[in-house]
What we know:
Shape: globular
Number of domains: 1
CATH topology: Pectate Lyase C-like
Number of strands: 30
Radius of gyration: 21 Å
Amino acid sequence: MDIVVEVGRPIQAAIDAAHQRGGGRVVLAPGVHPSATLFLASRVELHLPAGAVLQGVSDPWAYSDFRDPGFDDIAPEGSRKCLIAAAGAEDVAITGGGRIDGAGPAFYDTNVPAGQWFAKPPHPRPRMVQFYNCRNVRFEGVSFVDSPGWTFWLIGCEDVFIRGIRVLGCQQMINNDGIDIDGCRRVVVSDSVFRTGDDCLVLRAIPKGPDRQAVCEGVIVTNCVLDSRCQGIRVGCPSDDTIRNCVFSNIVFRGLGNGININNPRRYLRPGCTGYLDLRDILFTNMVIDSAEVPVWINVEEGVRLRYLGGMTFANLRLRSDCPCKLQGSPETTIEDVLFSQVRCSRPIEMTRTRRVRFNEVEVQES
């Protein structure tokens, strides 16, 4: 039996009641439901039908800090706050045709010239969805609008299915990533639309826990439309652990930022680390990228030493851009084993410090 929450009634109490009776569906009635942090629990589905809006409040101090053993030393942007949280949960879902609105611009100084980035405030900004160490997770149909921070941060989760969602963020906001998939296994993202100021889709493997390890693998992203002022797809940071065996297919990117970015600058190194990432066996196929910046950019700055960066395939790509594709290794890290097959681009491909880069039916049509 569904638990229906009318406008003005406490949502957390309904979630707790559904969990205590062994699971169930909590349905928000049509209308606007103001809320601070909600904690989902195992076997609970939060359902927002068309016309239902979960509205995040604009007071940053109303949100709870996300804490869990093995996580407490990780707080990007100095914030642990989030709107919807889950830790160690199984069989959880957020579904429906409704909307979750994070009131993002209310957390920034928006008094800037038109088109410029909003200024970051001194107070913490909450993320919209933060799941840690969860299993059998589903997000379907819902629109996630104007998250003040990362829209999704999925950490150490397994068997995650995301289908038919929309992530829409004001492109003057920084750090409003679409989905950050961090140290997760078996994740499918499909049939979704992303428009963000920061990166649309991100794969990470941030070391965490007592063993300082993380593996991100088995991620499939397909049939998605991306628009970013920063990066459409970003994979890895130099201090990450292992990212492998992932596929991006049937994707259209059109935006002011870079299309695919695998960027390893020194400024992203964790204290005391000169680089650790092992990134391999990533496939990008059947993509259209129309970028105002760099369509494909693989970069390692001098002084960054990665364990491995290579084993990437770019197949059946149509690239139009103001800048060339760039493969830029460092004296410490050579980019290896890259294949470009059936690629048509509007600028040449520039390469430095690479090894075993192969080309099959690559055509440059400079405009």
